[in-house]
Structures are given as C-alpha cells and as structure tokens.
Amino acid sequence: MLVAFALSVTTAGAQSYYQDSKNPEMLRHADRHEPCRREVVLPQVNGYNVYKADLHTHSIFSDGSVMPSYRVEEAWLDGLDIMAVTEHIEYRPREAEYVEYLKKYVDEKYDKGVNCRIGSKGLTEDGIMVDLNHCVKLSQKEAAKYGILIIPGAEITRNGTNVGHFNALFTTDNNLIYDPDPVQAVRNAKAQGALVQHNHPGWTRKDINMTPTEEIVYGEGLVDGVEVMNVGEFYPGIIDRVQERGLFISANTDVHSTTAVGYTLYGSLRPMTLVFAKENTLEAVREALEADRTLALGFNTLCGEEQLLKDFFAAGVKVRVIRQTGKTVELAVTNTTSIPYTIRKGEANQQKLDAFSTIRLSVSKKAKTLDLTVLNMFCGKETHPTVKLQF
Hints:
The chain is α+β, with helices and mostly antiparallel strands.
C-alpha cells in the first residue's frame, strides 16, 4: 500500500519519493541527494597534469568560520586537488572565544596562557601554549577521505599596510616560525624548508609598492611566489613582478567563511592556482612551484608566463576544417575545457568561446594557422598572448 502511494505521488508529478531501504514506513525525497563534486576539466599540457590548488585558506583555528573537516570537503566539492592549510600564526581571535567558553573546565594555568585571551593582539615572547600544527593534522586526516593533497603551512600576519602578510608553505613545524621581527619569522620558515608566498600585495594600500619589510624579504631572496589574485582582488602589475624575479604566480581564496557564499551561489569557480606537475604529491607539487609552472585563475581570467598560457590554451582548444569555399576556409573551434575564453581574430571584434562549446571562424586559404589573441589571458600588466592554432 505504501509503495503504491509512493508510485502514485511520482506519477502525479507532485514530487518524487522513494522508500527508505531500512525503514519501509519512511519515504525520502528523490530530489535530495548527496552533494556532487564540481569537476573542473582542464587539459594535460606538455606532459604535465594540471592540478587545481588553493594556497591560502583559514578555519576556526585562526579567524575562519568553519572546521578544518568542512574546509577539506568544500575543497573537494569545488573541484580542487590541493589545499594549503595556512592559519594565522599571530592572529587567532577564536581562541579567546574558546577559552571564555571553556574557562570553567580548564586548568587555571591554561587560562593565563599565551595568546588565549589576547586574541588579535598576537603572541607574547613567553612561548606558544597551543599546537599550531594541530589544524594541519586534522586537515590531513579528513583529506584522506577525498584524495585531496594537503600542503602544511601557516600565515605570518603583521600589519598589512605597513609590513605585509606571507604564507609559509611546506612547513614542518609551525610552532618554530614566530619571531617578534617579521623578517626573522620569514627566515625561520625558510630555515625549515618552506616556500614563501607574498599574500595580497595591495590589500589595505593605495598601490602595490613594497613596504620596507617586504623590500628586505625580497632583497634576501626569501620570496618564492606572489598572489596576483586574492578573493575578488586582481593586481595586474604583479604579473610583471613575478616574471622579472622568477617567482611562481598564484590565485587563492583566502577563504574565511564559505566558498558557497563567496562564489558557488553566484555561479563562479573559486579562484585557484593551476599547478603543472607530474603527479599530485608534495614532492611533485613543490617542484612545480619552484620551477614557476603555475597559472593564476580567477573569475575566468588567467595570468602567467606567456608560453605557458599559450600551451595551456592550445592544449584545450581544438580546430577542424568544416569546408573550403572560394578563397576562405571555414573552421570549427572547440573549447574542451571548463574555462570560457574571450578571443579576437586579427582586428575583428572580440568573441566568446564558452566552456565546452564550438564556434565557427573563417580564414584565408593562404593562412597556415588560426591566430587568436586571448583577451582574458594576461602575460603582463596590459599584455595578452596571441596563440597560433594548427588546422
């Protein structure tokens, strides 16, 4: 009788249900299902896989709004392969909230501990009462369920306007990084083999000129990469900086709340760093960053080294001849990737080449290649690559 009722509801079209496998008196909404991963389809390029990474994230273990387990699941659902855990070292305001809640249950000694009550005021020189590696361990445990690679890290967080923020990536012990001198803190991270990323270089400023602290850090060769995109910020001038200095380029969320609120609900991919590596391991990903084989992707804009951009576009866009008529050849241009492109052929008007779509273009019979300038690719502050596609 219950099954008949379920079938009748389905047939009537009011709403679809199905009978629970363990409880015959329970119906489940058929339209409600487990969340699905959003696959971001990218080509192989020059023998490398292209992995999607976020090299700047936060959880409740500094000033984020969610647990590390959620942050990992969120990364998987958003189509990522790699996530760096980069909690603030000096700025962990949630601890004050934890201690206030737990003060009736914890030892008085802990209640007077370093950075418990002072929260945003940072560490004192008495030491660190909490384990700054704990969030990394929790994230690694959760990531094993999803096949996400976790990069251990931490953010060295001083005054953003006058000093600057730096992510230490591939750290071995976050508890050994802090020093009252921010430059020494960066040196401490490098001493344990970390790669250092300069974060949001124009945040809370009027330009992207370096602070005195940043001048020292760059001058000592301590910086390995720079964010050209952070959340919704885009710094085109950084594209020239990273190429002049031989650094990797990145785009990251710096997520504190949820990427659903920031991106997914608006139909956008989250910003991500595209890493060109042989395999998704710490060793291979590190090698790719050290070799500067990365592109930055944010809001359908790609930034990076010119040849790598060209190779990436050519690997994902296919051209075939439809027919020849008179003096022209008509071509089908197919985008096989999840990234839409804005292109221009010669001096013609720009056109959209949406993700997983095909458009028609024509060229002269004398043409050897289809030459397209890709306007949503930046290989310099005001420079776009022109790609020659064979047909």
